[in-house]
Write a structure and sequence with these properties.
heterodimer, A: Rossmann fold, B: about 160 residues, alpha+beta, cell projection (chain B), cytoplasm (chain B), cytoskeleton (chain B), cilium (chain B), Intein_C (chain B)
Chain lengths: ~220, ~160
């Protein structure tokens, strides 16, 4: 019953100080998973949760002498619905938003992803990543205005040759941590209130739901 | 005369644009062979396409054929004159402007095929961790300076979200 899928989606754990959740956003085939894999190298243990069309990458690091557990959430095809399930955004502390410098449409879709992100997470740090610069290094002489207009940090990267990949993820972790320490995100508070309310009002029925889901998952 | 183009293609020998069209007045389907003249492997395809589109005798037949398609056909013809095979030429066309294709809308199978194509470039440019010049946390600064040119992707009217 306590199958891997369900316990890993236990979003409460992200309330703990030393745990952060970082999500990846962007169109199909912009290289989100390739970036993850380049950052984690051999050390990665991806967990496919096909029920939820997502991949989890767990990463442990030490920052200022403190051990930090990072869960990177990557989509596994869910982006093709042009929209992610709300739980994807829930309790995320930072977002890495990726486009492919070779495909204009992936850049043109950034505002859609950004809009959805902000509906759920109005305040979390968001990093904009221009991937695949190895395919055409000349793009690095150009400016892409989306990030500037939204006031977001922008990175030219290549998952293939490694340019700035580690920097992006290290920065993302730093930003996620400081966000978590310093913010009292209004939506977080609202969500917490709503959850408490739900728990109080129908504790029994929610227990039942989880049991059923657990069975389904292991079936 | 009301002409509706049905199909439009290219023939290599002699170089010509072939148009299958329907004459709405007579409901007859006909084929028109339009010779492509003064065209070499060094010609400008978009100009040649425009010339044809506005040709004094052919333009009426080509009204419902887009300039982009005529240009594409000229590109294929030019590739042929350069000695490329049709397959190579078509592959180059596909590769030349994948920029506007929405991969979110492809089937799993088609998406995986496209990813496999992209992987070829990825593998070619890939630095492996056994490579002598591999640097795990490679950082490169791309300084923001005033001469930096704005990407043309930002210059479109459909930018209200930006």
């Amino acid at each position: 019953m306590d199958s891997g899928g369900i316990s890993d989606l236990d979003l409460d754990k992200y309330d703990a100080d030393e745990q952060v959740k970082i999500i990846c956003l962007g169109d199909s085939a912009v290289g989100k998973s390739k970036l993850m894999e380049r950052f984690l190298m051999d050390g990665y243990r991806p967990q496919q949760l096909s029920t939820y069309a997502l991949t989890l990458y767990k990463y442990t690091t030490t920052i200022n002498g403190q051990t930090v557990l990072v869960d990177f959430w990557d989509t596994a095809g869910q982006e093709r619905f042009r929209s992610m399930h709300p739980s994807y955004y829930h309790k995320a502390h930072a977002c890495v938003m990726v486009f492919d410098v070779q495909r204009k449409i992936t850049y043109k879709n950034l505002p859609n992803w950004y809009k959805e992100l902000r509906e759920y997470r109005p305040e979390i740090p968001c990093l904009v990543v221009a991937n695949k610069i190895d395919a055409d290094i000349k793009v690095t002489q150009k400016s892409f205005n989306f990030a500037k207009k939204q006031g977001l940090p922008f990175y030219f990267v290549s998952a293939a040759d490694g340019t700035n990949v580690v920097k992006v993820f290290k920065d993302a972790i730093q930003m996620a941590l400081s966000y978590k320490k310093n913010s009292s995100d209004f939506m977080d508070e609202v969500m917490r209130e709503l959850e408490n309310f739900e728990l109080e009002s129908k504790e029994e029925s929610s227990d039942k739901e989880e049991t059923q889901e657990g069975k389904l998952d292991s079936a | 005369m009301s002409i509706v183009a049905k199909r439009c293609g290219v023939r290599f020998i002699p170089p010509s644009i072939i148009l299958i069209y329907e004459n709405k007045n007579t409901s007859k389907t006909r084929k028109r062979v339009i010779p492509v003249r003064n065209f070499s492997q060094y010609s400008d395809c978009s100009r040649a396409a425009e010339r044809l589109k506005h040709h004094v005798r052919h333009s009426v037949y080509l009204e419902s054929v887009s300039l982009a398609q005529l240009e594409r056909l000229h590109l294929i013809l030019r590739d042929h004159l350069k000695g490329l095979s049709l397959e190579e030429s078509l592959a180059a066309r596909r590769a030349s402007d994948p920029s506007d294709e929405d991969l979110n809308k492809l089937s799993d199978e088609e998406l995986n095929r496209r990813k496999a194509q992209m992987d070829q470039l990825f593998e070619r440019n890939r630095k492996h961790k056994d490579d002598p010049d591999f640097v795990y946390d490679l950082e490169v600064e791309f300084p923001e300076n005033s001469v930096r040119e704005t990407c043309s992707w930002d210059e479109e009217p459909s930018d209200e979200g930006f």
